[in-house]
Amino acid sequence: MSARTSRLLLSTLLLFVLLISACQSAETVAPVAEVDAGVTGATVITALGVDYALADLQALEQVTATSGDRTATGVGLLALLNDAADAGGGTLPETVSLVASDGYSANVTIAELDGTAVLGYSDEGTLDALIPTLAKSTWVRDVAEIVGPEAADTSAAPQGIEPIALDEPLTLTDAAGRTVTLDALPGRIMVVGTGPHMTLHILYMFEEGRERLTATESRAATASEFLPMVDPVFDSVPTTAANPNVEQIATMAPDLVIMKGIIENETGKGLTEAGIPYLYVNLESMDAFFTDLANIGAVLGNPGRAEEIAAWYQGALDKIDAGLADVASKPRTLLVSYSSRGGEIAVKVPAGAWMQTAEVVRAGGEAVWLNAAAPTDGWTVTNFEQIAQWNPEKLFVIVDHDLQPREVIDGLKADENWSALQAVQNDELYAFPRDVFGWDQPEPRWILGVQWLATRLHPDLFGEGAPHAIDMDAVVRSWFGDMYGMDSAAFDAHILPRLEMNVD
After folding, report:
1. Among 88, 208, 279, 331, whose Cα sits 20 to 30 Å from the Cα of 115?
2. In angstroms, rounded to a whole number, what is the distance separating the alpha carbons of residues 317 and 323?
3. How far apart are CA 412 and CA 415, in angstroms?
4. pLDDT tens across 255-293, in order?
5. How far is CA 60 from the centre of its chain?
6. Which residues of the chain have pLDDT under 50?
7. What is the rounded distance in angstroms from the CA atom of residue 73 to the CA atom of residue 28?
8. pLDDT value at residue 158
C-alpha cells in the first residue's frame, strides 16, 4: 500500500469517528434553552400537595426578612402558599404546618402572616422558614413539606372508651389553681402543651392512660422516643404539629385535655369557650410531681396505682433522707448544662426552683450557684470566671443530647482552665446520666437522678458496701419494670444500649 493510500484511509477513518461522536452528542445533550427546570428539576418542597423545584420557587416573589440576629432571603411564604392553593384548585386553609425533614413541625395561622414571612435558601441547599410576625419569630430549619389541617388517620390508633359515669362529680385542683369538676371519667384524653413527653411518661405508668390516650402533639421528631419501647401501639396515636389551635384539638374529640402549665394560657381559654375540659400539670418540682400524679390517677379512675407509684418514689427519698440525717457537712456542688450551637459553647446553671436544683439539694449537696441563678424560671448562662470562683468539690455536667458525654468530659479534663478546678483534680467530674431521656428532667426519671447523685455526693453512705448502699444497676432495672412493665429482655434491648450512667 502506498503512503498516499494510507493517508487517505486514515483520514476517512478519523472523519467516520467524528461523525459518530457528533451523532451521539446530538442524541444525549439537549440544548440548555430546552430544559424546563420547573418540570425536570428535583423537588425541594411540597406545599399543599404541589411539588416545587428550586426554579419554581425562584420564579415567585422573593423576600428578605430579618428578626433579631437572623436574616433569610428566599421565596415569600405567602406567595408560595397562594400559588400552591391556585395550582391545587383549592382555597388557602386557615392554618398550615411547616414540616422539617427530621419530622419536627410547627403550626402557622395564615392570618398572622405578612410579606416578611420567608422560606430562606441556606448554604446547605435547604429551605429555612423565618416568620418575624409570630411569637418568638418562628424559625424552622430544613422545611420539606407544608401541609394543611387534614384529618388524621386514626384507623390504627387507640380509640379510647366511652366516658365512665360517676355517682358524684370528681373535683380536683390543678397546677394552675383551677377547680376542675368532671361529671364522668374521661374515655378520650389528649396531651398538649410544653414538654408533652413529660406528661405522656406519667400517663403511661397507668394501663388506663395507654388505653385512653387518643391524641397528642409533638415538639420534636416524635412525641416520645421512649414510649414505643413499652407500647408498640403508641406510634399510631394521632399527633398534631406543635401548638395546635383549639379547632385542631376539637377535631380529636377529647373528653379531657392535659397540658403542662401553672397559669391559665390562651389554649385553656379557648378550650373553655369550646366546652372541652382540661387539666394543668406542673411537674417542675418533687412536690408538684406527687400532686400531678394523684390528679392523673384520679381522672383515670385508678388512685390506687397513683399511690403505688408514689410509695415507690417516697421510699427511695426516705432512704436518702435517713442516710443524710446525721450528715454535718455537705460537699460544695455545681451542676451545669453544656451545649454547643454553631461552634459556640454555652454553660448554664438551673433556676433555684427547678428540678435539677432540687435533685442536688435532696441528694445532699450544697448548690453553690443559687445566688447567681434565676429564682424560678430558666437557665442562667455562666462563665468560667464564675465557675472558678465557686471552685466546687463535686461537678456534674448535663450534656446536650446532640453531644457525646465521654467526649465532653474528656475535653473538660484536658482544658487547662477546667483541669485546675478542685472537682476535676480530685476526679469528681461527672456527666449526668441519661438513657433515652436525661435523668435531670422534670419527668418521671428524676427519681433515678436523685438516687444516682446520692451515690456520687456521699459514697461513704450510699456507695457499694456503705450503710445505706444504693445499687443503681438494680434500681434502674426495677424502676423500668415497676413503672412501665418492661421485662429484662426489653430492658437489655432498648435501655441498656443507651444507658450512660458512669461517665467520669
Report:
1. 88
2. 10
3. 5
4. 999 999 999 999 999 999 999 999 999 999 999 999 999
5. 34
6. 1-40, 136-137, 151-155
7. 36
8. 62
Give the whole-angstrom CA distance, residue 500 versus residue 449.
12
Q: For residue 56, what are the CA distances in angstroms to 122, 386, 474? A: 16, 53, 59
SS3 of 93, please?
A: coil
Task: Summarize pLDDT for 220-246 with one digit per residue, the tens.
Answer: 767 889 999 999 888 888 888 788 889
* Residues in CB range of 345: below 8 A, 6 or more apart: 338, 339
Q: How many CB atoms lie within 10 A of CB 405?
A: 20
Cell numbers placing 3: 503512503
pTM of the model: 0.73
Instruction: Write down the number of H helices and E strands in the chain.
Output: 19, 23
Q: How many CA atoms does the CB half-sphere of 134 hold within 13 Å?
A: 18
Pull the grid cell for residue 217.
Answer: 402533639
d(CA 143, CA 98): 6
- 294 contacts: CB under 8 Å, gap ≥ 6: 303, 306, 307, 310
Q: Which three cell numbers stand for residue 370?
A: 443559687
- In this structure, the chain runs to a length of 504
Q: How far apart are CA 345 and CA 410, in angstroms?
A: 15
Instruction: Please name the residue that has the C-alpha cell 441528694.
Output: 363
